[in-house]
Amino acid sequence: MKDTLLSPQHWDDEPFELIVSNPPYSIKWAGDENPLLINDPRFAPAGVLAPKSKADMAFIMHSLSWLASNGTAAIVCFPGIMYRGGAEQKIRKYLVDNNYIDCIIQLPSNLFFGTSIATCIMVMKKNKADNKTLFIDATSECVKVTNNNKLTPENIDRIVDVFAKHEEVEHFAHLASYEEVSGNDYNLSVSTYVEAEDTREKIDIVKLNEEIKEIVAREQVLRDEINKIIAEIEV
After folding, report:
1. Which residues does residue 76 pair with via DSSP β-bridges, in sequence order?
2. Distance between CA atoms of 142 and 227, rounded to whole angstroms?
3. CA neighbor of 30 nearest in space, from 56, 11, 5, 65
């Protein structure tokens, strides 16, 4: 896969209208050790290279470069690239400022063979009709199969349906404006934008307070009865 970054193929075939990619997570690459890479037309537009120890953003910039003006790219990503600082944040800024990020989908954990982390999908387009980014929290859209999680056709249909409609769904999807994303320092983590549902038991404070008063009152009655018994014994 590193050959993709250093010796890319398909120069005669690009651009592509559809790109689906699952690049390796956080592998090492030449990065700024190779002075030629910053002038590579795939990486130069961002003005910075992905870190030498984490090539994730280099794969994303490669896919973006190969993407047609009317195309869509869906890339499975390591979640750390959505919030880490430094060069990765600068590349996220480039992607958001140029309106390439269409959607971020947070997937359940234990979904892929060989890793238990909850990965995500970055969807990129070059011809967006607005400057908003959809964030989908699909961490609960799965069924458990032995020790792994699996997306059922129903899970996939729900994710695809919300993605296609680009609609707000409480605790599931949020359509964020450019100002909202840039105001969050270009953090693209879904949890920053989609509020998780609070499944904790809701407590009625007024009712609880009345129950406490009743307990205290019963306790006082019991103490009075005990005091009477003690008084009789002492006599």
Report:
1. 121
2. 61
3. 5
Nearest-CA neighbor of 14 among 122, 96, 126, 121? 126
Half-sphere exposure of 145 (CA within 13 A, CB side): 10
As given in the structure block, the two tokens for residue 119 are 């990965």
Task: With 0.70 as the threshold, say if the pTM is over it.
Answer: yes
3-class SS of residue 72: strand
Closest CA to 21 of 8, 40, 36: 8
Q: How many whole angstroms separate alpha carbon 54 and alpha carbon 71?
A: 26
Backbone angles phi, psi at 80, to 5 degrees: -60, -30
DSSP result, 141-178? --EEETTEEE--HHHHHHHHHHHHHT--BTTTEEEE-H
* Sequence letter at residue 39: N
Q: What is the mean pLDDT of each run of 10 residues along the chain (235 residues)?
A: 76 86 91 91 95 95 94 94 96 97 92 79 94 94 82 92 93 95 96 80 78 83 81 75
Per-residue pLDDT of 195-225, as tens digits, reads 887 666 677 788 878 888 888 888 888 887 8
Strand partners, 136: 105, 173
Residues 6+ away with beta carbon under 8 Å from 73: 18, 19, 20, 21, 63, 64, 67, 122, 123, 124, 125
Residues 190, 195: Cα–Cα separation, whole Å: 9
